[in-house]
Amino acid sequence: MRDHTIVRLQIVKTSDSTILPMDQLAADDQSRSGAKAYNCARLAQGGFPVPDGLIVLSTASNGEVASLAAHPWFDTQPAGATFAVRSSGIGEDGVGESFAGIHQTLLGVDRMAVTAAVVECRASAFAPQAIEYRRARGMPVDAIAMGVLIQRLIDPVVAGVAFTINPITGAHDEVVINASWGLGEALVSGHVDPDEFIVGKRDGALRYSWIGEKGETAASAASLTPQQIAKLSTLLLAIEEHYGSPQDVEWCHDGERFWIVQSRPVTTMRRAMAEVEWSRANLAEVMPDLTCPQALAAFEDMLGAAQRRYLGNLLAPESELGRVVQTFHGRLYFNLTQMRRICSLGGVAPAAMLKSMGHADALEPSDEAVVRPPLRDLVQHLPDFLKLAWRHLHAADIVRQHQQRIRRQLASFAAIDPRSASDAGLWTVIAQWYGEAADAMQPVLLLSGVLFHEAPVRNACAKVGFPFEQLVYPQLATGQRSVSARQAFELVALADLARHEPRARDFFMNDPLDVSRMRADLRGTAFLAAFDRFLAAYGHRGRYEYDWSLPRYAEDPLPLLQTVRAHLAEPATIDEAVTAVRQVREAERAWRQFEARLTPWQKWTLLPGVRRSIAKIKQYYVWREQVRSDLVRVLAVLRSWHLVLADRFVARGWLDRRDDYFLLLFPEIAAAVRGEREPNTLRAIAAERARERERLRRISMPLLMRASELPALMRHAGVSGGVDAEDETTLRGQAVSGGCVEAEVVVIRDPGDFGRMKRGAILVAPATDPSWTPLFTLASGVIVEVGGVLSHASTIAREYGLPALANVKHATRRLKTGDRVRLDANGGVIERLSQRHDRRSDRLSQSNASQQSDTDKPTMTPIEVSACIVVGGAP
């Protein structure tokens, strides 16, 4: 390797071609090659070890690209060589704009497939995420150009990324190296736990090292030897000197030497991102811990684009505070720092936002303070605030337009038989939905902004010294039922129908329930006819229903049937009319208590506005549940289309299993459908993603974190945190639905365990989404680890009049099925009254839920519970 105390080289123009080998790229070609290709060429011409490459300039015609495989450069490469084909967008990878992960990269491409790969890379410049990124950064979207870099693919033993400045601490005297065995793509995308080495620049001393967790088949030793670390550090410092600024470098080692794959400036964004707060609390409610890669990537793009479109310039540029939504180790997170910025601009205390998102336990005193923004900031962002205010004032029209749009969309879907449609025809519709999804999500974002109406109520309550929750929660429980609550009440009615029909009752007495025989055994019964009507209304829903890789109720009704059987075990105790009367009485009492604090003047000036705002809050909750249900109905139809494609891919031998289809990303499927990708490569992609998911499954990611904490968190990934339930008698959480109850708990961690729920027990869960609603008809109270006042558990618990606490840390580990507790949702306290002593038996029951005895009787029914419920007061 040459001495890299180098001089700046002037790249000299040698050709007018639009397809150039690296050594022929000139300085004035940068505007057509893109920064990635230009930087690699600059490094190669500077004597650095860069894999040999060919550059397709943005001005290359379609005809030139079509004949690319005949380019003589390929004849200089080893026989059987494969290539990495990388997008090199014009304007990307500069100091201000890093498009990392936005544009396409394809690996392992053979010579004859290079043309298709180049076409795919060029097309990625116009993908929705790329367009939104440009809009967010104020970059032009009407004159996009894309260069493409083709390089001989190195078969690495070790690969990684490195920084010539510490990207977390900002220390300029350190080189930080991340390394892992094999290809570096998974590391760059955050899918592996890398080894980390920190080297002092002055003395070359190894200041810190961490050996990341290895998979079962991976090598267990450190990925780099001390000698290799020293050699790589020297190379990195030479690259920094070459460019004259800190660099973010991708590298690999083939067993003999290091290769530099890419170098770009360490952006302002990387340094600012270190202190950004990230939350997945409300996302953990509606998406499984490990969402399928296909849905995860799509939602990251769709939610990010939707938020940018909805909030506009109220969001800081990504270079300052990062993306609005981002994936870390297979989990999707919201950017809380961006949300804090909006609170500051709007003159709202961050505490209200944190509580609504499920972080009441993480509040600092400073979060309760309102920080007024400078007047110039208010003036600058006034148009954005006015746009938001206009939307809230016209929320009813927006919801109505949304419902009309959903009806039109479903009608157009119904006109297509997916089984007879071509692959391309199906994918055209799916791609159209994907492109329009950011617009379709606007009503959800609007209705999640309930703080717009909560703020005046909170101010009024603070002014007269009355608890906000004590006034508002009882009002939210009355009046119109949400679609999720109606679903649960109708399920209770189904159970009552089955109770009075012998054939239906006999079917539910079978153990286990045989779903495959349901239609044969119940043919002609009133229950089956009613159940089909129920599925027509709610069959599009299901467990973690935003992940379209998972079945809907219409495909797998077992959780519903298990709930019906639980209700049949004893006479019905839930009466919707009786519940409604009690809730109205409690709401009226709350109003009387609030009004008693008001002066005559306040009753005339303050009270009418508070009543209007609370009515709006209630309407928002009902609308939001309906809008979410509508969007899931569309996803259910699209899932059926995805399954048609999945079955075709399996039949053609492209994939081994139907579920492997959901391990593929949209661009990969699109390329296969359009004939732009060799379909036989899909099996290898799916296999690698399946292995990654198994590795990620072992990692326990926090609900709230700072980016700077992530390396330390990953070093201790999977460690439980030392929760010792035996020594705890009191647990605390955020009260989201008032009341008090004493009962035993049933811990359910996954919808697959629904059959374990018992009538009258307190439901303890990580979080709930609408698929959990049937369990609320059996529960006497609810305890969840995740959620806030906006969460599904909170909304449904209030409509059912169930005491409920959210944000109870590690509740599913600290409480055990069979423990008897006193749940005081007014004071936010859970008191353990007695423990189930047979811990081994409890663990066995969790691993073999189907063995649960039907003879276990509840300790308290919902009717008995209602006598204990005292909203806003001591029990």
Describe it:
With 875 residues, the protein is of the alpha+beta class. Among the domains are: 19-152, ATP-grasp fold, A domain (Dna Ligase, domain 1, 2-Layer Sandwich), CATH 3.30.1490; 158-273, ATP-grasp fold, B domain (D-amino Acid Aminotransferase, Chain A, domain 1); 483-609, no CATH class; 725-866, Glucose Oxidase, domain 1 (3-Layer(bba) Sandwich), CATH 3.50.30. The strands form 4 sheets. The protein has an 8-stranded mixed sheet. Helix 16 packs antiparallel against helix 27 and helix 18 runs antiparallel to helix 27. The longest helix is centred in the C-terminal third of the chain and has 45 residues, at 607-651. The termini are far apart.
Summary tags:
875 residues; disordered C terminus; eight-stranded mixed sheet; Dna Ligase, domain 1; disordered N terminus; alpha+beta; 35 helices
Summary of the model, kept short:
This protein is α+β, with helices and mostly antiparallel strands and 875 residues long.
Instruction: State the helix count.
Output: 35
CATH superfamily of the domain at 725-866: Phosphohistidine domain
| Structural class by helix and strand composition | alpha+beta
Numbering strands along the chain, what is their spatial order in the largest sheet? 16-23-22-18-19-20-21-17
SS strand fraction: 5-15%
Main sheet record: 8 strands, mixed
- What would CATH call the class of the domain at 725-866? Alpha Beta
Number of strands: 23
The rounded distance between the terminal residues' Cα atoms is 78 Å
Dominant shape: globular
Percent helix range: 40-55%
Q: Return the CATH architecture of the domain at 725-866.
A: 3-Layer(bba) Sandwich
Q: Overall mean pLDDT score?
A: 81
Question: Can you tell me the residue ranges where pLDDT is under 50 for at least 5 consecutive residues?
Answer: 1-15, 93-101, 186-191, 215-219, 718-727, 837-875
CATH fold annotation of the domain at 725-866: Glucose Oxidase, domain 1
